[in-house]
Protein 1
Amino acid sequence: MILTISKIIPKDDLTEIRELVGMLTFTDGAATAGATARRVKRNLQADLTHGAGRVWHARVLQLLRRHPVLRTAARPQRFSDLRLSRTEVGGGYGAHTDNALMRTGTTTLRSDLSFTLFLSAPEEYEGGELEIDWPGMVPSIKGQAGDLVLYPSSSIHRVAPVTRGERLVCVGWIQSLIRRDDQRQLLFDLSSLRASLRDGRATSEVELLTLDKSIQNLLRMWSET
Ligand code: NI
């Protein structure tokens, strides 16, 4: 499943988060890529381990963790450390696949889902689309500032070269309680249906209860804790 979640960062928070970026130090992003990806990665990454960088990291992660749609779509067990990437003219990220296992703190995270949180508005730069190889098509994604796109880490993907301006995004990975994408999608569909039926109130309690029972029992069957 590829899912764009609009305005995951509210406007006021976005303004402050972008202002904070001005206080951060950026270095060559190739240092954090795996051996294969390093050859095609051309961007800059902020130090989020000290001072203002730590504050920035905690603030963005808190907003992501709390977001109800991201929680339902991704069923996060753990988040990776976030990365803040700036891509200038001539930069980009060639076709690559993300490492399956990532060091996060003192433990290893399995990347089930990747996400890109757009921090620049699309009119601030040209090029820089996120392209994901998908059966029968290659979606080319350029979100509004504050939008997040969630996609399977198992895909081959790339960032088109930036030809004008500057592209600022936050990227990260999620280890999900539900390892398989198709199972996660089914649970997301059923949970979305439950939410809309609750809003409509036309459905009887027993129908809602049966739907809820099915969702809970699928979670019991499929979750890894
Ligand atoms: Ni990637």
Protein 2
Amino acid sequence: MSAATLSNYISGTWQNVNERKTLPVENPSTGEVIAYVPLSGAYDVDVAVRAAEKALPGWSSTPIKERVQIFFRYRSLLEKYSQELAELIHKENGKILSEATAEIEKSIELTEFACSMPQLISGEILEVSRGVECRIDRYPVGVVACITPFNFPAMVPNWTIPNALVLGNTMVLKPSELVPLSSCRLAELLKEAGLPDGVFNIVHGGQETVEALCNHRGIQAITFVGSTKVAKIVYQRATNQLKRALCLGGAKNHLIVMPDAHEEMTASNVAASMSGCAGQRCMAASAMVAVGSVDHIITKLVEESKKIVPGKNLGAVISKAAKERIERYITEAEQQGATILLDGRGVKVAGKENGYYVGPTVIDNVTPDMKIAQEEVFGPVLSIMRANDVDEALKIENANPYGNAASIFTQSGGIARYVAEHANAGMIGVNIGVPVPREPFSFGGWNESKFGSGDITGKSSIEFFTKPKKTTTKWNAEARKNWMS
Ligand code: NAD
């Protein structure tokens, strides 16, 4: 069967895209083309924004307690179709089924949080002078656009869909052109849950589509998740157009390992952090800073990493270009004098010879000046750098321009506290390789990992997706007059 060309999702229906340009969507595990994604232009974006604008008055004036009912149903549908969604994620992204299932579990948790919004945003009211009260109500921002990356085809869209919509906004989602299928299925589930047409819309495409979203006057706020290079461009373009913007970028996460760290727990956590989702996580361990004598932990880490087998418990990377880029980083590090302890280059998976697999790779004696130590590799590759003490390790960690996550592995509470305080990153792990905060805690890094204020999920999202209205009222003519009456 030939692969179909996808449509945009506008006002609850699938509509053909005006632009004729398309890109093939590949299954990274096999290299097979599974769909064609259209590259929407300014005209298609305008159609979607108009649909979202039309739906806004009805949706934003629906009481929040009614809006959340739809998301209780959406949550149940995510659970009901979890297996099917996981298979779709596996097919378009290449991650293994258990990782794809975890994405749906996290999407459920995000939706549960959104369902608690009525409890979180009940207003503030106070008698500020005799007989005069001040109250704050939260209003939706309006039409929001959300632009998402390839590495979490369902979870990252669900970072924003439930919260933004429960808070009364309408949305245009621009999923990654590499993984557009999961978002389409989410649109169907939202409709099945009872979401009114036009509240949620999808435009497919790439750079031109994003530019049209940033330029469109009907959009009030933009969230972006992707690489730092593009996050900066989108943040600048959106804020230049006087839109509210929150743009999450790439990462280079360091794990500091002390000699007193628990050998087995550390080795298995570091290996899992480095290789989970084939290293294509903005929370993945990319660098390990080994402090003092930790060779026993490194030996164990290599042993653990050998248990991670491409095609079995390690998925494919997203594309041929990604595989080549990752392998190039390894080769350059080797040429610069690093020691390859475990080499994932050139692997082939039987029966999936055309798939884009890179095996787990552990590289020792990396120095901070090497390219592999400085740039985001985004593959199952761990670079080990050496430090004499915790301050030297922190210096290496804090010299990197990103600031998503940093972890410390130790049995000493004092050292853990010291690193948590001094690491220049937004999310800290103590004996945890992937320190993703779970709801209600919000997700977001620092420095070049995020542009804009606040975080994208959790309570922080309330600030981003609403605007506070302050109303001051006096009904009683007898109320005492004072300087502000
Ligand atoms: P990407 O930046 O290439 O693409 C992200 C989105 O931007 C896509 O929808 C894409 O179509 C669009 N885009 C691409 N180039 C553009 C351009 N020049 N102008 C406007 N839009 C453009 O990112 P990716 O490869 O899809 O995802 C991987 C990156 O995302 C990694 O760097 C990873 O660290 C990062 N990421 C960060 C977080 C976080 O929370 N900080 C979470 C997930 C992924």
